[in-house]
Hints:
CATH topology of the largest domain: Cytochrome Bc1 Complex, Chain D, domain 2
Bound molecules: heme C
CATH class of the largest domain: Mainly Alpha
Strand order of the largest sheet: 1-4
Helix content: 25-40%
Strand content: under 5%
Structural class: mainly alpha
Distance between the termini: 23 Å
Amino acid sequence: MIAPAAQAQDWLPPGSAIEETGPPPIEYIRKGIVRDDRWLYGRLLFHSPSLLGEKAVRIALSCNSCHPNGHVNKDFYIEGLSDGPGRIDLSHHFWQAGQEDGKSNPLDIPSLRGVGHTAPYGSVKSFPSLPAFTRHVIIDEFAGPIPAHEDMMALMAYLRSLDFKGSANDAADVSTSPDMRYLSLLEAPLAAKDLAVLDNLVDLIRGDIGRNQKKASPKAIRLVTGLLTIREQARRGNFETARAEYRRLTQ
Ligand code: HEC
């Protein structure tokens, strides 16, 4: 089912605000980037709290919460961890006990536009490469699970596609975060009868639909029900039925 958006607040100190109040910033994607399955999956992970572990799941926090569309959430504020909006202390026991540095040191959330070209990464601890810094963010700062190799590759494909504002982008490559049709990601595992990949995608896409709906719209309910049907049929080995349901949903 679709989780009500208010639930995340129950786990945060009163006065916190992790969602933006205004419209999200524009997502600048580098010219010529092919938005293939890997890029699309990387974008889905960027929006998925499960990448960052248990705590993040409870408060519905993803990379995109702090870096919406690869830019900055200027409203982001967690009481006790922020000393102003858009700033956050990542080395605080709130995230994980082992990482407390005993200091209150909130930092500005930086933009990730053009991040493929801005090495080295991080101001407190410096990392030479984007994968190394991203692993540090996920594992050390958020106590998230060690990311699978394919997940890291996909996340890198998305991060490296983020472009600087006002670069040689033509209008066709600039988007304002429309529905990215994550459903198409199901096509490959349905064809290959890969249940593990399918399972994971169904969970991630369901979560994404839930987070983007303030209220459960009929369309969202139809999508989520359809996703669960696809998974159920695939689990029973009925891949024909699962594929038929997929076609019905994507018509
Ligand atoms: C709670 C807010 C928050 C979340 C969630 C978050 N970040 Fe960040 N991010 C920051 C802050 C603050 C910094 C600055 C850290 C520093 O300077 O050491 C940062 C820095 C970065 C940088 C370095 C940018 C540079 O130019 O040095 C990258 C890359 C990055 N984050 C990627 C990610 C990715 C990928 C995720 C998800 C896996 C993520 N972040 C989740 C707040 C966040």
